[in-house]
Amino acid sequence: MKHSEKVEDPGSAVISRRTLVGAMGAVTAAAAAAPAFAQAPPGPVAPPSTVTTPPRDFSPRGAPTTYFTDPDVLSVDPLFNQYAQPNSAIQRLWTGALWAEGPAWNAQGRYLVWSDIPNNRQMRWIEDDGHVSVFRMPSNNSNGNTFDFQGRQLSCEHLTRRVVRYELDGSVTVLADSYNGKRLNSPNDVVPHPDGSYWFTDPPYGGQLYEGAPDAAGGPSNAGGRLKPRLGQAAEIGSAKRELPTSCYRIDPSGRIDLVVPEDQVPDPNGLCFSPDYKKLYVISTGKGPGDTGPGGKGDVHVFDVGTDNKLSNRKLFTDCMVDGVKCGPDGVRCDVDGNVWLSSNAGRAVGYSGVTVWTPEGKLIGRIRLPEICGNICFGGPKRNRLFMAGSQSLYAVYVNTQGAAPG
At 343, which helix (H) or strand (E)? Predict the structure, then answer.
């Protein structure tokens, strides 16, 4: 067909190519002649796409990963290349939680335990055959878990507002449930120290129906008294009210509990971990919890120097967790043996930025791991402690890395 010929579409509208080009030219000229104030101002430059192409299926029905390097393990800086493990793919090991949190690796038993907070249970993944089962139910809406240097499990319980240790004989020891005679808020995360002490954070997130129990009538998370905190709970639950600011504490081997990070330094503290030499403490500050009238966190990470007297000093902002203009809200944190800081990332609806961010000890972003869900917490595990386990909102993921975790569990 010649260019000068007419084209007839199925709707019988007849138009020549020359007429069409002429009309388009007139529109262009009119646009150029329009006053400057009629033109839309240029918007912000959108960040590059961060969604795997083609979209990835993590389910057992999905195709195997055929790439030599996983497309969702990203080197932001060449420094990260030495920590990313080639020929290792991200795997979804299990799904079915309401909100997965607190993964912890048991080296002797070679299993991973984590919390499904709203379902009031702890789950266990066994390495030998990948079997997943309910490990402990009820769990008192446990959140953070870890194992100490003697292999004993530590858990932070929202519902009972306490930190407990599961002894090797199967009994349970309450390590902390109050400070200066006042009940704790809802312990969130706990880490062991080689001197036998335990350090934990105490934000207010357990004071809600979904992940624990609200305050008794008049408390900050139940100021109007309309909620009934005893519903569906054991007889001893439902009378507590929030009495303390959000803080970070140290449990001395003697049992004494010391305040180490007050609310005015790190409001709403969440995840925490030590550097490999235990000379620095990283503490995550997240957003406000239910009924929280305090300063509230900004979704950032702070670092302190740890003195020989267990006193903290020289507080600094480690990172604000902004990546490409996106807030990668931190929750859980672990260090590798080189001191790099691995943070879980909750980027909300910013698809492609949830998962894990990796930072040097100086606070430089070097790598990211993308997950199809927001990530609540992480830990290193496996027999060689070179596998990163990631608790997504509903699922458990894992990927091998070319480094080892510094903490015991």
Answer: strand 341-346
Q: Is 73 helix (H, G, I), strand (E, B) or coil?
A: strand
* CA trace torsion 290, 119, 347, 189 (10° rounding): 70
Check if the beta carbon of residue 92 is closer than 8 Å to that of residue 130: no
Examine residue 55 and say whether the peptide bond preceding it is cis (omega within 30 degrees of 0): no
Q: Helices then strands (H, E): number in the chain?
A: 1, 31
Query: What gap in Å lies between CA 300 and CA 287, rounded to an integer?
Result: 9
Strand order of the β-sheet with 162-166 is 142-147, 153-157, 162-166, 172-176
Interatomic CA distance for residues 274 and 197, integer angstroms: 12
CA distances from 299 to 135, 221, 390 (A): 31, 21, 19
Contacts of 73 (CB under 8 A, 6+ apart): 84, 90, 367, 368, 369, 370, 399
Phi, psi of 239 (to 5 degrees): -100, -5
For the stretch 213-261, pLDDT in tens is 999 999 999 999 999 999 999 999 999 999 999 999 999 999 999 999 9
How far is residue 105's CA from residue 382's CA, in Å, rounded to a whole number? Answer: 7
3-state secondary structure of 359: strand
Other CB atoms within a 10 A radius of the CB of residue 335 amount to 22
pLDDT confidence band for 44 (50 / 70 / 90): low
| Ordered strands of the 300-306 beta sheet | 269-274, 280-285, 300-306, 312-319
Tell me the mean pLDDT in the region 62-76: 87
396-405: per-residue pLDDT in tens? 999 999 999 9
Give just the sign of the alpha carbon dihedral 33, 36, 37, 39: positive
Who's near 298: CB < 8 A, 6+ residues apart? Answer: 285, 287, 320
Question: Average pLDDT for residues 33-62, to the nearest whole number?
Answer: 60
